Structure formats: C-alpha cells, structure tokens
Amino acid sequence: MTNTLLKPLGWLGIARLGLVQSALGAVVALTTSTLNRVMVVEMAMPAMLPAALVGLHFAVQITRPQWGYGSDLGSRRTPWIIGGMACLCLGALGATDAALIMASTPALGILISILAYLMIGMGVGASGTSLLALLATRVAPERRPAAASITWIMMILGIVISSIIVGQLISPFSAQALAFAATGVAGCAFLVTLAAVHGVELPEGTKAHALEPGEDGPPPVPFRQALKEIWDEPLARNFSIFVFVSMLAYSAQDLILEPFAGLVFYMTPGQSTQMSGMQNMGVLLGMILTGAIGGRSTRSGKSWMSAWAVFGCVGSALALMALAAAAEVGPGWPLKPTVFALGFANGVFAVAAIGSMMGLAGSGQKSRVGIRMGIWGAAQAIAFGLGGFFGAMGVDGLRAILPETGDAFLVVFLVEGALFLVSAYLASRLDRSKQTVLARVDGVDGPASASLMGRGSPLTQG
In the CATH hierarchy, which fold is given to the domain comprising 7-203+222-428? Predict the structure, then answer.
C-alpha cells in the first residue's frame, strides 16, 4: 500500500464539496417542506402525520455516530457519500409517491411513507456525516470555519433554488406536477453529487495522509469506547447540548410555517413554498454576512464565534415573537419580511455553530473526526425530530381547544422563542467552558497557545 500526502483542499475543492450539501438540501426540502404542506392543506390530514414521518427520518439519524465511525475506519469517504445520496434520492421519490397514494389508499400510503422516510434518514446520515468528516480532514485548520460556512451557504442556496423551482412547477397544484418536480430534484441531486466528489480522494488501496504526514493517530478502538471517550470531553459535551437546544427551537417552526401560511394567511401551495424560499434566502444572507464580517474576527486574541451565536439566537427569538403577533393580527401582517428576518437570524447563529463544529472536530485526532461529526449530527437530528413533532402536535392540540386557529400558532411560536433565549444563554457559556480547558492545558501540558485541540490536550486523550 502506497503512502501519499494529500494537499489541503483549495477554495475550488471546498466549493465542489459544497455542491453535495446543495444537493442534500434540495432533496430534504422537498420531503420536509413541500410534502408536509401538501399533506396538511391539500389532503386535509392532521399535521401530526407528516410531522411523525419527518420525525422518523430524524430518529434514524441517531445512527450518525456509527456511520462516522465506519467512514473513519476506511481509507475513503466518497463511497459513503455517494451511497447515502442514492438512498436519500430513492427515499424522496418513494415519499412523494406514498403521499399521492394516501389520497386513495391511506394505509398503503402510510406504510410506504414509513419505509421511504427510513431511507431518507439513513441517506442523510451516511452522506452528510461522511461529507463533514471529509471536509474536516482535507481542509487546513485556518480555513475550516470558512469552509463550513461556504458549504452550508451552498446548502441553503440549494434549498432556495429547489423551493422556487418546485413552487413554480406545482402551480397550479396537481399530482402529476408534484411527481414530475420530485423526479427532477432527485435526479439532478444525484448527478451533481457524482460530479462533485469525482477525484477528490485517491483510488482504493492508496493510503493517504490528509494534512500531517506520519501522524496516523492511535489504533482504532471499539465504537462504544470511542463514543464514551468523546462524550466525556466537557467542551464537546457542552457543545452537543447547545446544538440540541438551538436546533430544537429552530425545528419547532420548520413543519408548521407553511401550514401557518395556508391556514392563517390563505396562501396557495406555490405561494407558501416560495415564502419558505424567502426564509432560506434570509438564512443565506445571514451566513454570508456573518462569515465575511465576524465569523473569525477576534478581539484581544479571543474568538467571537460564541458572541455571534448569542446574537443569532436572540434575533431568532425576536423574530418568533413577531410571528406570534402575525398569528394574532392575520393577513394584514407583513409575513414575508418577518419570515425573512427569522431566516437571517437563523443564518447568523448557524455560521457560528458550524464554524465551531468544524474546528473542534478537524483539530482533534484524525481517527475520530467521523464519530465526532456523527455525535453532533445525531444531537441535531434528534432535536429536529422532537421539535418538529411536538411543534405540530402542539398546533393540533391547541387548535382543538382554542377558538381561533391563529391562537394555536401564537402559543407555539412563543415557546420556540423562549427556547432560543435558553440557547443564547448556553452559547454565552461556551467560551467560558473553552477557557476552563485552556487553563487546564496551561497547567498540565504547557502554554495553551500551542493548540487547544492538539496533541496532549485533554480533548484528544484516548
């Protein structure tokens, strides 16, 4: 077996891998946004049904650490990326067909939907986790936060483009138009993925060092032991909790926003899908602005990533309070600007969180990158599943006991805003947790300035 030193990815290589995130975002948006709206509004199904299906696809992603561990053990990650994308695209097509079958044969449609959303969850977990691990090991440390921002910006761009195109294709709505749109999105996403990962890694049988030649790390340990060792790291654990709470807050509105637009503001499927695209345009702008101005800015040698996370969480809370007011006022409220503001604030905190994630995973042992990404991906997925389901269940339950539909959405939006305020508090404590680790490193292994996550750090022991 030949040893080869791989050069760090340049900006073009990072952008190529970002296309995979664009493809992932486009397909997932179809299944979690458009199909959700169609089931609730056009098919008059309870919001809990699509929420439960989406929650199922997030629940499956609790296996993300296992996917990451598997890709850590191999010499190449691109097969995991391609295989995961194939599973995701097939699942998306199955979910679309199942939604249409529900209109005539509900039991069969629900059964096919369960299988389809299981495939969607496995596809996202395998492809997304391996992609982040590949980025963390092939990108130079000083470029990791920017690389994370670029790839997520491209994911949002894929969601925006997909939402706009699908919204136009299904206006006026018909089963045939929906099936045609889903086939086009899935087919394009898979072809883009194949082109994006081609040639990024060396052929099978060639052993490659990502950035540091001669540094192979310790021998592999069993999955459960590796998982426990990483969870015992205070900074990694605190970051996982922040990811969970913030994503719980975000996801609670994810499945009810388009039904809210249809039930309270009387928007058509095409209009609400385009509104969702506007929200993601706000996310895109927030990511670009934060990444360009403050993602890696420093003052007195300290990173401001946590400060941007706090700002994004507080902004998201204020935007959700505005949505609560919109639920009370009704069609006269400027809904689209409010949704855009929510997206912008979400983008700000997302860049801060993603930049921290990439740096924390990529600067540790190369043999643990996949499983680290898997842990944080699992925290995010579980939060999304729980938040989406309980958000939809809350709307259904409150609609049954409150006199106005808008009142149900008002209560749920206020609860989400409160969760974002909790997330802001947790984000404010991340720097304090980091400084505690730095103090320990200074006292045990010498100057902390050498490397927080380098060899000898408590975060990389074992």
Answer: Growth Hormone; Chain: A; (1.20.1250)
